[in-house]
Specification:
Number of helices: 4
Strand order of the largest sheet: 1-6-3
Strand content: 15-25%
Number of domains: 2
Shape: elongated
Largest sheet: 3 strands, antiparallel
Order of helices and strands: HHEEEEEEHEEH
Number of strands: 8
Helix content: 25-40%
Structural class: alpha+beta
C-alpha cells in the first residue's frame, strides 16, 4: 500500500482496487490509483450526504465518534454516521460539563442502528445549546458490496479518462464511426450513491 492511500476516506482497499484496474501492486500506477481511490471516497461521502467528520474520517466508515446536540425537549437523536453499532455514553447537561451525574442510564434509551436514531424513554433531551453529548460507533464496518463496486467503477472511469487523454471529450468520430464518452460521474455510479443518501439530508 502506497503512502498516498488514505484509510480515513477510501472505501476500497488498494489490493482490491489495483486488481480491478489490472494494475500491479508496487507499480508507479499504484500511487495514482490510491489518489483516485481517495478522491472517489471523498465524493461518495459528499454525494451520499454523509460528509467527512472533524477528524477527517468519512461518515460512511465505522469509527468511534463524539457528537453534540442541542437539547430541544424531544425524545429522539439523529446521528450523522450510521449504521450505529454501539453507544458508549449519552449525557444531558445544560452546564456542558458532562459529569457522571448527568449520564443517562442505558435502560432509558434504545438505538436503532440502520436508521441512525436514538430514542429515549420520554422527553429527556433538554438543556439548550450543546447540552447533549453522545459517544458512539457509527458507519459501515464492512462497506456494502454495491457501494464498493460503484467506487471501483468511478476510479476506473477516471483512470481510463486520464490515460486515454479524453478529458472534456463527449464525442469523437473517425470516418463513419462515432464513439461518445461520459465526462462527469457515470450515471450507474450516481444511482448507487443516491441509494445510500442520508435520508435526513433529503428535502421531501
Amino acid at each position: 500500500m502506497s503512502a498516498n492511500y488514505d484509510s480515513k476516506v477510501a472505501l476500497v482497499s488498494t489490493t482490491s482496487m489495483t486488481t480491478y484496474l489490472g494494475i500491479a501492486l508496487g507499480s508507479t500506477e499504484e500511487s495514482e490509483c490510491d489518489l483516485l481511490n481517495n478522491a472517489a471516497g471523498n465524493l461518495a461521502a459528499s454525494m451520499t450526504g454523509r460528509g467527512i467528520d472533524g477528524n477527517g474520517v468519512s461518515r460512511l466508515l465505522s469509527t468511534s465518534r463524539t457528537e453534540y446536540f442541542d437539547g430541544d425537549n424531544s425524545d429522539t437523536l439523529y446521528v450523522k454516521a450510521y449504521p450505529i453499532t454501539a453507544v458508549t455514553s449519552l449525557y444531558v447537561d445544560p452546564d456542558r460539563d458532562y459529569g457522571s451525574g448527568t449520564e443517562i442510564d442505558t435502560d432509558d434509551y434504545t438505538y436503532y442502528g440502520p436508521e441512525g436514531t436514538i430514542k429515549t424513554d420520554g422527553a429527556l433531551l433538554a438543556g439548550g445549546h450543546k447540552s447533549i453529548k453522545l459517544t458512539y460507533t457509527g458507519g459501515y464496518t464492512s462497506v456494502p458490496a454495491d457501494l464498493q463496486q460503484a467506487v471501483k467503477e468511478l476510479v476506473l472511469f477516471w483512470y481510463k479518462r486520464n490515460t486515454d487523454k479524453r478529458v472534456g471529450v463527449t464525442n469523437i468520430s473517425v470516418g463513419d464511426k462515432s464513439m461518445g464518452y461520459e465526462t462527469n460521474v457515470p450515471e450507474s455510479v450516481m444511482s448507487t450513491f443516491k441509494r445510500y443518501r442520508d435520508w435526513k439530508s433529503v428535502v421531501a
